[in-house]
Amino acid sequence: MCCPTGVCGPDVDPTLPWFAGVLSQLAEAGVDVERYNLAQEPMAFVRNAAVKALLDQHGTEALPAILIDGEIVCQGAYPDKAVAATWIATATQPAQA
Fold this sequence. Notes:
With 97 residues, the chain is mainly alpha-helical. Helix content is 43%, strand content 9%.
């Protein structure tokens, strides 16, 4: 990928702009969202112990890897729309006292 989102070039996977939108919705809901591209930011993958272990065990076939609160919740593919909708719904719910 030539850019962090992968949403560039002549043949864009439609999942990439959709997932970029999911991340945007999460960020707008106040979730701290960080996204890294292995080609552009390899040290981010090495510095995270869970991601490094995942890559050591499965290689780049395990990407994308999605972490929530430091735990890998999705690997090898982007989440489906139902899972993403759950994340967004959880992020936008008012905090319980």
